[in-house]
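Help needed: design a sequence for this.
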């Protein structure tokens, strides 16, 4: 073992989202760090988080973090833009010594790549309402026209397994078609569910529009944080993934297989008095 490496390096990485959207982040994490073990938690009984207010999402996120910490994870990825907007700052304040990696709308790379200076952002209402989004706009997008859409209903369609279905396409056409005549050349996918509708989005925008998925950058950030803290798992073989859900375990296992291409086992949780517990 590396002399700078902590014995905690073999602990799993915790990843959570309101549902299966965070699997798009888990996919990139596993590509970057296949030797790590992962504990993925989808709060599917409460999906989607997008229409919920900041306070409610913060409370849910804080309870999920308490549960994951009780499982002895070494780092938590908030694989949800809405939860990051609501809870990342208070979580870092509450646990200053524990590493969290959250998401913010990927406006920086979008601004770097756009030639027309017109960028679309697809995200949830709570993401747009949060101070994190406003901070990103102020820092990186001062001279760029930002076109926004909340794509109501899209996360639920993806959650139900209909990511390339007729209703998902209708929602995305309603969001994107008004943007295209305005010179749009870059679209930020500001919800982790949305990369699973990649094909449908490209069908509408055409290949001339660049889609920005923040997941690869998040994976790199996690890798860097673990390296800095001596927490990278030294294992050469592939690690394991354990799925947890507040919804139906069979549903989570099916979606993971459909979206990630491999079968995995899922364990059911239940909410009880504001805390997550293993289901009976």
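Sure. Designed sequence:
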């Amino acid at each position: 073992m590396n002399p700078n490496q902590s014995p905690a390096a073999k602990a799993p990485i915790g990843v959570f989202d309101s549902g299966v959207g965070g699997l798009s982040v888990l996919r990139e994490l596993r590509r970057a760090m296949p030797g790590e073990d992962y504990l993925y938690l989808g709060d599917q009984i409460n999906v989607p988080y997008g229409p919920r207010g900041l306070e409610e999402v913060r409370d849910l996120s804080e309870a999920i973090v308490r549960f994951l910490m009780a499982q002895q994870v070494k780092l938590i990825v908030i694989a949800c833009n809405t939860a990051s907007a609501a809870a990342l700052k208070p979580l870092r304040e509450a646990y200053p010594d524990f590493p969290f990696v959250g998401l913010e709308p990927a406006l920086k790379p979008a601004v770097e790549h756009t030639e027309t200076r017109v960028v679309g952002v697809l995200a949830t209402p709570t993401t747009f309402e949060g101070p994190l989004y406003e901070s990103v706009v102020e820092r990186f997008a001062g001279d760029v026209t930002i076109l926004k859409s909340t794509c109501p209903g899209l996360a639920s369609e993806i959650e139900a397994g209909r990511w390339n279905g007729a209703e998902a396409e209708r929602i995305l056409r309603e969001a994107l078609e008004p943007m295209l005549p305005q010179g749009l050349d870059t679209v930020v996918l500001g919800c982790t569910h949305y990369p699973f509708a990649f094909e449908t989005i490209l069908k509408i925008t055409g290949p001339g529009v660049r889609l920005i998925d923040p997941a690869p950058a998040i994976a790199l950030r996690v890798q860097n944080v673990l390296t800095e803290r001596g927490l990278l798992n030294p294992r050469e073989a592939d690690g394991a993934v354990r799925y947890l859900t507040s919804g139906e375990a069979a549903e989570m296992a099916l979606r993971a297989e459909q979206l990630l291409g491999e079968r995995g086992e899922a364990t059911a949780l239940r909410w009880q008095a504001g805390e997550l517990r293993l289901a009976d």
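The first strand starts at residue 13 and ends at 17.
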